[in-house]
Structures are given as structure tokens and as C-alpha cells.
TrEMBL record:
GO molecular function, one term: catalytic activity
Location of the region described as Disordered in the Swiss-Prot/TrEMBL record: 1-27
Name of the protein in its database record: Phosphopantothenate-cysteine ligase
Biological process according to GO: coenzyme A biosynthetic process
Protein origin, superkingdom: Eukaryota
Organism per entry: Gomphillus americanus
Cross-referenced InterPro entries: CoaB-like_sf
Gene3D superfamilies found in the cross-reference section: CoaB-like (3.40.50.10300)
Length: 341
């Protein structure tokens, strides 16, 4: 029998407590907790700001031993690219990302149209080397990657399901409290709005022949009964990270809705910034909505470039995240100054 759905009168705290009580943490939770604590402590001692960048889509499993799941759209480009610009600007980054989605630095060589094997050749001695025309680009990326490794400024935390994501988000936020306003949350992940509570989930693979397997199948149809995921942005802003800067994203497909939905989110959660983007144009334009202000950020001479970047003749590329992240950092500077005064 299923758990009764949350009543519309439930408080945010009750919904949150209910969620974490009924949906257990991921297996690696304790281990990740230690990693996060050590990372935050190190950078706190060094006086470094920390950005928690979330990236990629969360899944909603249909079975406990998961074969099928509902997915959320996101390749992880926004998050992985933004993380690099935070690192370049002196931040340490906790990169909470969908397992196997794009990662900072390796993203340059992991896209299917940018396969790393195409950058290689075998020389006359049989050694694998990087082709001449890619040497400079690869050297630049490698140097930045190695710097992040040497300085231990990048922590990778993977998730798959929405529950794994939320456990990690909450725990990381609590660990980051020690940094006060020196932490920024940059929530680019595409988070599921609906899920199947653990106690209604089928343990094993749903069989097409099973009637009413875990309340999921009716006759020959699979009827999926989803509960709303509590709006965790509220808990984050008010309880888990009350002194940090919070930047959320708003993805829409209808241009007429984007600004009003972004403003509504800002009003509802009272955080610092909503970055609005449309599915089809997200690689070259976004709108930054903060209290009393909206600012469009666009790549110059943009076009529907399938790689999502604006290529210069020199071969270098301008990415919209290189324009977004410095603006977020400027707002973060202001917020920190205001907090200190
Ligand atoms: O990875 P790419 O392919 O580059 O794509 C990037 C992106 C389009 C996914 C990214 O730029 C983006 O817009 N991410 C947010 C998409 C999204 O989940 O929007 P939303 O309207 O569902 O959620 C808005 C905000 O509410 C999010 O910041 C989310 O963290 C938060 N949320 C969502 C669900 C939930 N239950 N609780 C929440 O707090």
C-alpha cells in the first residue's frame, strides 16, 4: 500500500522531513560527506570562496533495482563550462553532477562531435601524440586542469536520481554554512519536479505481464503515479544556506513566459538571482533577473552554432558562461561587501 500523498497544507519543513525520512541516502553518502567536509575546511582556512555548481539532469527511477527511469533533459554543458570559469576566477568548486554527464575540462574532448580520438595520431615510432593543430588548445586545457588538481580546487560529486541529488545538495549546503557569504550556489542542474516515493516503488523490473505491480501497472498499460518533489529551493534559501548567495536557473520553451516565471521564482524564494534561458537559444542568450533588474546576456554575432559556442577565426571560442560567471561574481562581491558592512 502506498504512503498517502502530502496534503497541500503541509509546511515546507514537513514535506522536507517527510522526503528525507522516506527516501534513504545514497550508498556513498557518508564517504562523500567526509570529502565535502575536508574540502570546505581546507578552502575555508585558505580564505577561498567556494561555488557549489549543480549540473545535468536528475532521474526518477521506476524500480528500486532500476532498469527504467524518467530522465530530465540536460547534457551538463552549462554546469561544466561555468565551473571552469569559477575556477579561473579563484573559486574552489564542488561540482555536483549527473554521473557520466559533461565534466569541467574533459568536456572539451568528450562530446560525440569532439571525440578525443580525433585529436590524436600515431607517429612513425608508433607513439600516440596530439595532432599539431590541436597542441595549443589542448595544452591550455591541460594546464588549467592540472592546476585545479594541484591546488585541489575541484571536487566532483556524482548523482543519478533526484533523491541522490537532494541528499547531496542538503549535506553540502550544511557543510558550506561555515563559509557564510563566501559560498555561492549555482543551481544549473535540471531537477525533477515529480517522483515515485520509495515505498510505492517496485523492487524488481516491472514485468509487462504483471497487473498492479507496485501500483504501477493497470491492465496492459503502465500507469505511473508521481508525487511532487518538495520545492527544495525554499529549504535551501531559508534553512540550509541562509547566508550564501543563491543563483537558480529557469528553463522555459515559451519565450513569452521566461521573464515572468523567473520573476515569480525570485519572489517566491527571495534569493539573489535567477538565470533564465530558453531551450533553443540557451547556448547564446540568457537573462539575469535580480530584484528590480533584468539584463540580457548575449554572445556577439551569435548564430545557431551546433556546438553552442561562437567561433573566432583564430580557433578560440567565446562561451556564454565566460560572460555569465563574471557577472555572478560581481554580484557576489557586492553581496559580501554588504554583509560585512
Ligand atoms: O546542461 P545543458 O544542456 O547546458 O542545459 C542547461 C540547462 C538548460 C539545464 C540549465 O541552464 C537550466 O536551465 N537548469 C535549470 C532547469 C530547471 O530545472 O528548471 P526548473 O524550472 O525545473 O527549476 C527551477 C529551479 O528550481 C532550479 O534552480 C532547481 O534547482 C529548483 N528546483 C527544481 C525542482 C525542485 N523540486 N526543487 C527545486 O528547488
Amino acid at each position: 500500500m502506498g504512503r498517502p500523498a502530502l496534503s497541500s497544507g503541509s509546511t515546507v519543513e514537513t514535506a522536507e522531513a517527510d522526503y528525507f525520512q522516506n527516501n534513504p541516502p545514497p550508498k556513498e553518502f557518508s564517504q562523500n560527506k567526509q570529502l565535502v567536509r575536508a574540502f570546505v575546511q581546507r578552502h575555508s582556512e585558505q580564505g577561498r570562496r567556494v561555488a557549489l555548481v549543480t549540473s545535468g539532469g536528475t532521474t526518477v527511477p521506476l524500480e528500486n533495482q532500476t532498469v527504467r527511469f524518467i530522465d530530465n533533459f540536460s547534457a551538463g554543458t552549462r554546469g561544466a563550462t561555468s565551473a571552469e570559469y569559477f575556477l579561473e576566477n579563484g573559486y574552489a568548486v564542488i561540482f555536483l553532477h549527473r554521473r557520466f554527464s559533461l565534466l569541467p575540462y574533459s568536456r572539451h574532448y568528450s562530446h560525440t562531435t569532439n571525440c578525443f580520438l580525433d585529436f590524436m595520431e600515431i607517429d612513425q615510432q608508433g607513439k600516440v601524440t596530439v595532432k599539431n593543430n590541436y597542441q595549443i588548445g589542448m595544452q591550455t586545457v591541460l594546464q588549467k586542469y592540472q592546476r585545479a588538481q594541484t591546488e585541489q580546487t575541484l571536487l566532483l560529486l556524482p548523482f543519478t536520481s533526484v533523491t541522490e541529488y537532494l541528499w547531496s545538495l542538503r549535506d553540502t549546503a550544511l557543510s558550506l554554512q561555515v563559509l557564510g557569504p563566501n559560498a555561492v550556489f549555482y543551481l544549473a542542474a535540471a531537477v525533477s519536479d515529480f517522483f515515485i516515493p520509495r515505498d510505492r516503488m517496485s523492487e524488481h523490473k516491472i514485468q509487462s505481464g504483471d497487473l498492479n505491480a507496485a501500483g504501477l501497472s493497470q491492465g496492459t498499460k503502465l500507469v505511473v503515479d508521481l508525487d511532487p518533489v518538495p520545492k527544495f529551493l525554499k529549504s535551501l534559501v531559508d534553512g540550509w544556506a541562509p547566508n550564501a548567495m543563491i543563483v537558480s536557473f529557469k528553463l522555459e520553451t515559451d519565450p513569452l513566459l521566461l521573464i515572468s516565471k523567473a520573476k515569480k521564482a525570485l519572489e517566491r524564494y527571495s534569493h539573489h538571482l535567477v538565470i533564465g534561458n530558453l531551450l533553443l537559444t540557451r547556448a547564446w542568450e540568457v537573462v539575469l533577473v535580480s530584484p528590480g533588474r533584468e539584463e540580457w546576456v548575449r554572445l556577439p554575432n551569435h548564430g545557431p552554432d551546433p556546438t553552442g559556442t561562437f567561433a573566432f577565426e583564430s580557433g578560440s571560442v567565446l562561451e556564454i558562461e565566460s560572460l555569465i560567471v563574471p557577472k555572478v561574481i560581481r554580484l557576489h562581491d557586492v553581496m559580501i561587501q554588504q554583509t560585512c558592512n
